[in-house]
Design brief:
The protein is an alpha+beta fold. It folds into 3 domains: 77 residues, no CATH class; 115 residues, no CATH class; 59 residues, no CATH class. The protein has 8 helices and 14 strands. Strands 7, 10, 11, 12, 13 and 14 form a 6-stranded antiparallel β-sheet that branches. The chain has a 4-stranded antiparallel β-sheet with strand order 3-4-6-5. Strands 1-2 form a two-stranded antiparallel ribbon. α3 packs antiparallel against α4 and α4 packs antiparallel against α5. The chain is elongated. The two termini are 38 Å apart.
Length: 257
Amino acid sequence: MSIVKGRSISDLVVKVGVRSRWSPSTGASIVETYKCLTKDAADAFFSSYVGGQASVEKDTEGPPYLVTISTPESASGDPNDDYVDVWTMPDAQQHKSLFEFPRFQDIDSDVIKYIRAYAASKTKDDYDEAFALAASGNNPDELLLLELLRKGTDSYLANGATVRWTRTVGASYDNSTFAQDGLRKIWTATQVKNLNPPQLIKGVIDISTASVDAPTAFYATGWLKTAAEVQQRGENRFDITQEWKLENWSTDLYPRY
C-alpha cells in the first residue's frame, strides 16, 4: 500500500520503543510502540494488525501518530525463541582535544612540541618560547592554536555518531553470535546497514559516515563495534544492547571487519 507517492508504509513507520508487560489475565506480552510520520500511515499500519493475535491501539491525535502493539509471548511458540529489535542513534557529540582539530594537523612538529609544552605548564616562559617559534614561521594556524590555548580553550565539540541495536530476548536465547561477531573491529557503513536497521537509520548512517574528515595514515573511517550490555527487563526477558561508534580508528589497534 502506498501512503505517500513513492513511499511504502515501512518508510513512514519507525519503531521507537519495546517493553515487557505482565497481566494476571493475559500473561506476559511484548509491547511495541511505533511512530508514524503521517495519520494515513498510522491508519494503514493499524489496519494491517487488526484481526491478528496481537492487541493493537492507535493515537492519531498527533503528530506524532503512535501505534501500540501488544503481542502475547505464547502467540509465536516458545517465548525464549522470540526477539524484538529496536534501533536508535543517540546524540554522540563529544569533546576532543584542540590538537586534534583538522585545521591544526599541518602544523610543524617542532612548533607543536613547544605549544604542547605550554599547554601542559601554562607558564609565561613556555608561552614566550612557543610564540617566538610560531611567529617566525609562515603558518598562521600556529599562532591561532597558541592564542586559543592562552584563552583557556583546549577542546572542541566534534560531531560523532553511534548506532545502538537493542534486542529483547528470552532467558534461553543464544546470543553468542549476535554479541561476539565483529566485536572490537571497524565496520563499514554497508556492513552495519546489512544488519537491516530501519531505512531512516540507514540514511543517517550514510550521512554521518560521509561527514567524517578523511583519515590520516594508519587510520580508517568506520563504525567500531563495542562490547554488548545485557540487562534484565523482568518477566524472564532481557535486553542485549550493541553499539557501533563512528570515528577515524587506528588500524594498529582495531582490525577491519
